[in-house]
Amino acid sequence: MKWFSLVLAIVGxxxxxxxxxxxxxxxxxxDPLVQPGMIPSNHVHQIVGGNTFNATMNPAxxxxxxxxxxxxxxxxxxxxYWTAVLYFKARNGTYKRVPQEGNxxxxxxxxxxxxxxxxxxxxxxxNQHITAFPKGFRMTVGSPTITxxxxxxxxxxxxxxxLQTLLTRGAETPDFPTTPCPAGIMAIHHFPACWDGVNLDSxxxxxxxxxTTIGGFQTAGPCPSSxxxxxxxxxxxxxxxxxxxxxPSLWPTDGSQPFYWSFNDxxxxxxxxxxxFGWKNDAxxxxxxxxxxxxACEAPQGGPLQSQSINQQSSCSVQNxxxxxxxxxxxxxxxx
Length: 336
Fold this sequence. Notes:
disordered N terminus; five-stranded antiparallel beta sheet; mainly beta; single chain; six-stranded antiparallel beta sheet; 17 strands; about 20% strand
């Protein structure tokens, strides 16, 4: 039985959970949350979601009702989701971008990311009311400034899995894998799910949120009184197809691993993700209030959300604001 089918088999009827693919929207040096208006930003990001993505992303704009297309399965989701980009460093010092691959049980998906909005865990949706993110909401998780393993260990929602197959789950580490992974490297980002109920953002893009996650899609702890509102547990899975670089003769002679985040991190501790909410009208709340699970949330399956084909997803894009080579063999990481 496939991993996803197993998930469906063990989940009982309750509130909704979403798992869906988003193809690539753009890959460029823009960061409208941490460096709004800065063209180019410090490092390369890979972005999925709605086509209102730009260098500023004014929070006053209702992107859920102004976007005209999205790279995500659910056609009412114009949110933007982004992370840094993974590069391979060759022995001669040049860099090559690692391609992304589709996730298990998301047939037809190529690259991009898998997005989750869960309520409790993979074995239950719990019994709490989940409040959808409001218009103008945004947040980040992790930080490229983290270079210490002891700090990274304290963030259980930010992990890596060395994939033996696309179905591999578990065995998560805070570090990049140190040996070649037969099916690639999965980067995992679990965002906080406790909101202060007041602020749509904060100066550091994190203080308005509080994390009680223990990782692995397990039941998180209760929200504290300072951040009492339970929102969906947002998570990203990005599968980096490192298999073309698995030949040990390509790896460093000192035995270290050869992969770098686009902000020049070869440890993995600085992994981070960004989110700008952009669901149309009350679509996300409708989903959270329903009893659907994953693919059953699509309207053709009787669910509350409109979906679209992979061809429609892939036809959505935004024009690059920053023109530079991010894909060839590079003498240095873009921006460095």
